[in-house]
Each structure stands twice: as C-alpha cells, then as structure tokens.
Amino acid sequence: MVVVAQTTRQPGGATALPKGFRGAELGWPQLRRIPHPPRRVPLLGDVLGVRPRTPIQDSMRIGAGLGPIFRRKAFGKEIVFVWGARLAGELADEARFAKHVGLGVANLRPMAGDGLFTAYNHEPNWQLAHDILAPGFSRDAMAGYHPLMLDAAGQLTDRWDAEAAAGRAVDVPGDMTKLTLETIARTGFGHDFGSFERTRPHPFVTAMVGTLSYAQRRNVVPPALAPVLLRGAERRNAADMAYLNRTVDEVVAARRAADASGAHGDLLDRMLEVAHPETGERLSAENIRRQVITFLVAGHETTSGALSFALHYLARDPGVLARARDEVDQVWGDAAPPAYEQVAKLRYVRRVLDESLRLWPTAPAFSREARDDTVLGGVHPMRRGAWAVVLAALLHRDPEVWGERPEEFDPDRFAPAAVRSRPAHVFKPFGTGARACIGRQFALHEATLVLALLLRRYDLRPEPDYRLRVGERLTLMPRGLRLRLTRRGVPGPSDGYARGA
Q1: Which of 122, 183, 256, 299 would you label with 232, given CA atoms 20 to 30 Å apart?
Q2: pLDDT in tens, 344-389
Q3: Catalytic residue selected from 430, 432, 448, 475
Q4: Contacts of range 123-127, beta carbons closer than 8 Å, 24 or more positions apart
C-alpha cells in the first residue's frame, strides 16, 4: 500500500505540500487517463519483464510503446513519466513548474544534503550557494581553469601513450573517470587525488560509485523489505558516506590551514571566503562540505560518461572521426598549446559531443512539479505539488522532433540551422530552468578540449566484437568500453606544452 503523506498548514492558512514521497495518485486526479504497462500485478505493480539494474532503459522501452506520457507502479509507488516534446515543453515553463527532488535524487540527500543538486526548492542554502558560486563559472574563471584542464589531460595522454606503445587497449570509462575527477578536484579545490598513479580506482571513486549504486537500489526495492534486503548494503553505504565526508573534511581543513597568500581563487576559496553580495551571509561549514561533495561527484561522473559515449561513437564512425580530426588539425595546427578561446572554435567536435549527449544524456532524467493547480497538455489535471519525471533519454528520441531515425548518430543534427529550427526545450542533458546544472559550461569546455586533444594525438579503433552496453548508477556510462590506439605523430599535451614547458 502507498503511505499517504501528511499535510500541514503554513502561516496564513495555506496548505503545505506533503512531506516524503508523494505518489502520483495524490496529485493527478485523472490518473486513469494515463496509460500504464499491461499485466499489472496486484500489490507488486508493473514488475513483469523489468530489470532492477536498468530502470532508465526499462522506462525508455516501456515509454516508446505507451506514448508521450505514461505511468509505472512498483511496490506501491506510482510515478508519471513524460517524454513527448510538447508536454516536456510545458514542464519546462518556469512560471508553472519547478524542480522536483525526485526519488533517486532524494536518496542522495544523506550524502549531499542541501547541496546545489539535492536541495529542496524551499531550502535557503540553494540560492545562497548559487549566488556565491555562480561567478566561479564566469568566462574569466573558466579561462583560469583551462591550464589545469590541460595538465590533467597530459596525465591521461602519458598513460595512453604507454598503452598504445604496448599494444594494449585502453579502458575508456575508467580513464575518463580518473581524468574528470582530477580536473574538478584541481580546478575547483586545489586537490590532487593522484588517480593516474594508481592501478585501481581511487577510494573516493569507489565510495562514490557505492553511494550512487545504493541510491539506485533504494528506488527499486520495496520499502517494507528494504531493512532486510539492503541491510548489508546500508552498512556499506554508511561506510562509503563516512569516507566521502572524511576526505572532503581533509581537503577543506588543508585549505583553511594554508597561508592566505596562497589563495587559489577557485570554488573552494569562494565557499570559504566570499559572502553573499547583498545579504553578507556565508555558507556554513556543513553546507560547504555538502557543496564540495556535490561538485566532486556531479562534476566528474556525468562528464566522464559523456566523454566515453562520444569516444565510442567516434571510433565507430570513420567519416565523423575524420571530419572531427580534420577540424582539430585545421583550427589548432601543431604548434602551441590550445588557448582557452580556441576551444570554442571546434564547432564540429562540439556537435559530436552534443549528439552523444542526445542519445545518452548521462543525467538521463529530471523531475518537475506544479507550482499551482494546472492542466498538462489540456488533458491531465495536476494539483499543486504534483510531479512527473521528464525522461530526457527518450525526449531526445521523439520522432516529432528528431525525425524518423532518431537512434542514428548524426552530429549534423546540431548544425546551427538545425538547432534554430527546434524548440530549446527538446534537448535537455543538463536539466532545465533555474535549477539546471551550474557547471554546464565547465563540463562542455572540458569535454570538447579533451576530445580534441585525443583526436589530434591518436587514431581510435574499436574492439571488433564490442556492442554498446549502458550501465546505470543514477547516471549512465558505457560498460566494458575499450579502444585501441595508435599515435598520429602530431605534438600533443605530453610533448612539453601542457605542463607549462
């Protein structure tokens, strides 16, 4: 059975939104109008044929058959999903809808609390942190991060040079994870995890993957059975969270102990030293910890997946690979290190990245809730607080927008004329509205830079028997992706320039 959430009265007599999980039956008066999978099992719900480890891909398959709005029920939890472009456009309207901290994101709150990604809309620390940290993603700040991004890329190419010389295939998701963790740690917090000096993932990555996987499992395990089925996993998750907290506390303590003359001007300095420009309020020590964890996790997990998918598609499409490589050679040449301004000139490489994010947005869904009573699509009434999951991975495949073959990889979908012909709300790999990803430009600059550096340096060849398999741990990542490399003989980061030579 679904536990009915309790409501309270706010000052002035207004009814506050129910706390805890709000099932769709609470907010959608005409829920019966929304289709659901056939063969619904009493008590259990829509569980036939589903795979607990791939709920996003299950929802994509189910939604493709049921239409642009559908619902799923499992163990008493009824959830509405939307993927049709027209309905998603309504949900993107900030006047009518706001971010909803959905089930999967809420499961991360024990780790990230009221960090930027996991904060509820009413929590004041979200706006405080956003206003303090937004200048950390300005153009000037990004230009300052660029040399550190080059340095981390140099460590990656050192490793890939050795693997290529030995004739070994490279572990793409593993190495992209190391790269993006080092990049966000150094640019944002002045910390070096030493990822490329390790033969196994850094314990921070292991703990992070553990917490993400645990949050995903919480989504698909019946609440009544969770204390039994997840007893061991809960203990491991507690240990993982303790490690994440301890690591971040050490990073912050080291910065606090440093001489003031050694200021970095990075995100951590802003968290520790900058007050809100209007109120003078500062972030608390607890919130700083939550923000650091948020940036370290979100700032590398999604970017590593985006790079991995892009490299998979490049290696599989010789025509796209050649065109992207030719652009890099033409724009950058073979002389000095690429300057910050030069990355934006790689327009086709950026299209490759966008098309990869279209097919597999590494943050594959986001949730929206009604600010007031409304009607979605002129058909489906929603009470204030009613919410739906926007399935971006399927929105990005809506044939009404993307044509009859939306599964095909085609970077020219993002040519300027094609982009102008589409509504903005149909491509949402970073969420939408005021709560969209604050680090979007950081991630796009980093990923475009890295793809270009690798294209300039290597020929990429896929393993002949590999077929794309997508792993899910709230974010999406290719599983088992390995590529073979040969050096192109063109100077790159390890030839002396990436580290200041």
Answers
A1: 299
A2: 999 999 999 999 999 999 999 999 999 999 999 999 999 999 999 9
A3: 430
A4: 125/283, 125/284, 125/287, 126/435
